[in-house]
Write a structure and sequence with these properties.
By secondary structure, the chain is α/β, with parallel strands linked by helices. The chain has 3 domains: 62 residues, Roll (SH3 type barrels), CATH 2.30.30; 239 residues, 3-Layer(aba) Sandwich (Rossmann fold); 133 residues, no CATH class. It contains 17 helices and 14 strands. Strands 8-9-7-10-13-6-14 form a 7-stranded parallel β-sheet. Strands 4-3-2-1-5 form a 5-stranded antiparallel β-sheet, with no helix packed on it. Helix 6 links the parallel strand 8 and strand 9. Helix 13 packs parallel to helix 15 and helix 14 runs antiparallel to helix 17. The longest helix is centred in the C-terminal third of the chain and has 22 residues. The radius of gyration is 30 Å and the shape is globular.
Amino acid sequence: MEALKIPAPGQLVTVRQRRYVVTELKESAVPAAALASLDQSAPEYLVSMQSVEDDGLGEELQVVWGVEPGTVVYERATLPDPTAGFDDPHRLDAFLDAVRWGAVASAYVRNLHAPFQSGITIEDYQLDPVVRALQMPRVNLLIADDVGLGKTIEAGLVVQELILRNRARTILVVCPAGLQIQWRDEMREKFGREFRIVDSDLMKELRRSRSLRVNPWSHFPRLITSIDYLKRDRPLRQLHKLLPPEGQPPFPRRFDLLIVDEAHNVAPSGGAQYAVDSQRTQAIRTLAPHFEHKLFLTATPHNGYTESFSALLELLDDQRFARGVPPDPKFLGAVMVRRLKRELPPDDLGRPRFPRRVLRAIEVPYTEQEHAAHQALNRYARLRQRGRVDRTERFATEFVLKLLKKRLFSSPEAFRLTLEKHEDSLRGRTARNLPRPSLRLLQREVERAQEDSADDDAGEEQRQEAVQSTTALFRPLEAEEEILLAELREWATRSAGSMRRYVPVASGTTRG
């Protein structure tokens, strides 16, 4: 039987169909007698390696040599034997052109390569962010272009250029839940980069295929997650395991590039005097110091409160901006890219790039029945709020009444479903005499119900469960409240039924 080839440090190997350079070799400490009892003649070796592939340069891997299948050790570097003859001159010339065009020199910041290695139609104004990013030793950019100008494309160009120049490898995209699939598809189709979505489904798959202790934040270098999933306790705990302990400097940075889409969602809720951090803000504040580069995307960066805006800028660049201090216009111009559609110059033919936007107010006339339903709901809300006894019941009452009002202005069918769940919970709680949930548990469940969800059905189910839990704190119905709920139920059933008769079905016909 041929002896197993053990690589030496500095030697080139192929493992898992990728090229690596061996950096360290550790021999097993198992005694020879124990190896003989296991019918094993030679000790095993733990081999540490670094990737030399273009898309994974510097990526580290450890394997047990001899157990890992399909390994190849290259004894020495050799040139290929030209036994097949010489290439055609035109073919060789095309090959040399491809090598020259694909060679990325980090010293030349004026030569862009991302536009030529992407499947997109380039607009001249979309090159501004990537040019500014290359001029920064550490990329901290707030892309605040108008809606429809292609902020995702601009971010993809920055990502592609940083990867080609070996300035970024580990990338995390944080966005609303409904945009996760869009980000994954656009990065794959337009830039040829694979991203994986980190959510509950991925966690289940990784635990089945790898182990129960798998960490989803380290299983792949390019990841996408939603801000509402990231802010939860369990994902944050798993992420903290990869970060240096508190008190230690975050250098070298653990990750390379952080992209926050719809960044206004992570800004603190501001007022005239102060800004209050939300759970989304706290999650990004925990992550931001451990990323070398940061890219924030939003079409509405300023919510009208300077305190909130300065806190958002501090998350992006804490060297130039500080919370509570008005941003310096000079520093703001260095990190923010802001273009409106009307400010862009015309195209090559002298035509406007985008049609002019004209806003017109459309008045919606409400019927007498709708006004009566609104008045009945307001009367029911006042009666419910008058009977609150503690903070927990106050919190539950405000959540349910606010949700009922939102559903009333949404559609009669949505209002009918929520009202039905509210009534069933009221009567079922009295019959079953359920225990009162604590305020902390109630707040956590309500926060889950208010999160964005990529699955509309799952999000609606979560909100209905929150209505059921919060209604468990309500006191029994009084006579006037019973009458008001009956009026609302009758209106919602009648209005929802009349609307369903004219809803188009899949075949293109209408129900009626």
